[in-house]
Amino acid sequence: MEMVFAAAIQGESHRKRELERQNLLAGRRFPCQDRATVSGSIRAANGTTFSFMAISDGHGGAPYFRSHRGAEFALQVVQDIVSRRMDRIQELVAAGDFDMIRSQLALAITKNWRLLIDRDLQENPLAQGELELLEGEKPQVAALYREGRDLYSIYGCTLLAYFTAEDFWFAIQIGDGDFALSYDGQDFSLPMPKDEGCFLNQTTSLCDSLAAKEFRYVAGTQIPKVALCSSDGVANSFKTESQVAGFYRSLFNLFIESEFPQCQELQCKNQDRCDIYCKANLVKEEILQYLPHLSRNGSGDDIGIAAIVNLSAGDLKTIQALQDYLHGCHIKHHPALATEREYNPERLMYSYFAKAEKGKNPKARYELALYHYNKADSQLALKKMKAAATAGHLDAMVHLADWYAEGYGGQPDVKKARRLYEKAARLGHKEAEQRLEGI
């Protein structure tokens, strides 16, 4: 099952500039210059179904006052070209000629992007107000524009696009930004070759005179579990590449591990099956709420991000198990809800935990261990608690160690207890550290 997401938000530095007194008086705006798009299951002209995402980052600075428009054009152009020329792309994939795909895409993107700008300039000629603002900061550049020279720079932007069909994927880029992928959702790589033209705040751009030669690419035939495109506002918010990879990993884990309150409160339409699309929307909302925080505490720049996530049958089973566990917890703490619906609260709670356990949810195993402990069934309680502890549940480790120490269900075993306390303490469980002091 494929899930897609794209968003672009105004950076904190742009927001602050809009609030400066001189800009407020002049009514000057600093809109988000990033653009992001993503689509799943697009039908190409030849009938092939493909998925597509792209990020375009309009240049900052006074000379690029229509760069947000340039970014919009870039996204339109590349998706249209891929859709119309998928037959040719597949021919070249079959021949293993990915270099030719890069060359032909780069030429077509550059040509068609400039055609859209030519049309935009005809329909929306440069306004006196635009040039007057520029003259105050860059008079020489404004003079060039008045002479009709270097007008593509006004729309200058970067571009990063990724598309995938059944048996291949391809990513193409000009300028900065990151392309990341992972085959397991945890280990992320940045496979795109580095751009030697990107240095400090300088970047290669679609507005360059030799732009078609500045594109680089990466491709493969194994479809990744997760692929992401992001503008440099993301990478510049972190100190190291490993931190960036950790951020991408956390985005994927939102699908698998997040315990959203809406899920816990039995708001899904079908309580016997996780509404994965509902869960996906919650993930998207969470990301959208976080991106302004990332800009504010990181780069201050606009942020654009797009993702294509392929959830396997195993992923869906894990997600469903988490939802069942959450439902069980909610009934445990709010038994009246089950009573109102004429259900037996204890039975309903147990059924949810049992379903979650089948999905190998360690938290559900822990809850079932406590349930059987309260029912004085030491054999089942120990079995469930051992399974939860083995799966890495820290509270289960400590509980099982307590039981070993006191001899629950058998003879005391202080050595086993100590080993579990030590393991839980190494993993950060504070109570395990305290227990060690008293054993």
Essential attributes:
439 residues; alpha+beta; five-stranded antiparallel sheet; four-stranded antiparallel sheet; 54% helix; elongated
What's the arrangement of secondary structure elements?
Layout: E1 2-9, H1 12-18, H2 21-26, E2 34-43, E3 49-57, H3 67-84, H4 86-95, H5 98-123, H6 128-137, H7 139-146, E4 159-164, E5 169-174, E6 178-182, H8 211-214, E7 216-220, E8 226-230, H9 232-235, H10 241-257, H11 261-264, H12 276-297, E9 303-310, H13 313-333, H14 335-340, H15 345-358, H16 362-374, H17 378-390, H18 394-406, H19 414-426, H20 430-437
Antiparallel strand pairs: 1-9, 2-3, 3-4, 4-5, 5-7, 6-8, 8-9
Helix pairs in contact: 3-5, 6-7, 13-15, 15-16, 16-17, 17-18, 18-19, 19-20
- Segments where pLDDT lies below 50 for 5+ residues? none
Question: Mean pLDDT across all residues, rounded?
Answer: 91
* Alpha-beta classification: alpha+beta
Q: Write down the overall geometry.
A: elongated
**Rg:** 28 Å
What count of helical segments does DSSP give? 20
Distance between the termini: 50 Å
Structure description:
The chain has 439 residues and is α+β, with helices and mostly antiparallel strands. It has helices at residues 12-18, 21-26, 67-84, 86-95, 98-123, 128-137, 139-146, 211-214, 232-235, 241-257, 261-264, 276-297, 313-333, 335-340, 345-358, 362-374, 378-390, 394-406, 414-426, 430-437, and strands at 2-9, 34-43, 49-57, 159-164, 169-174, 178-182, 216-220, 226-230, 303-310. The strands form two sheets. A five-stranded antiparallel beta sheet has the order 2-3-4-5-7. A four-stranded antiparallel beta sheet has the order 1-9-8-6. A hairpin with a 4-residue loop joins β4 (159-164) and β5. α6 runs antiparallel to α7 (139-146). The longest helix is centred in the first third of the chain and has 26 residues, at 98-123.
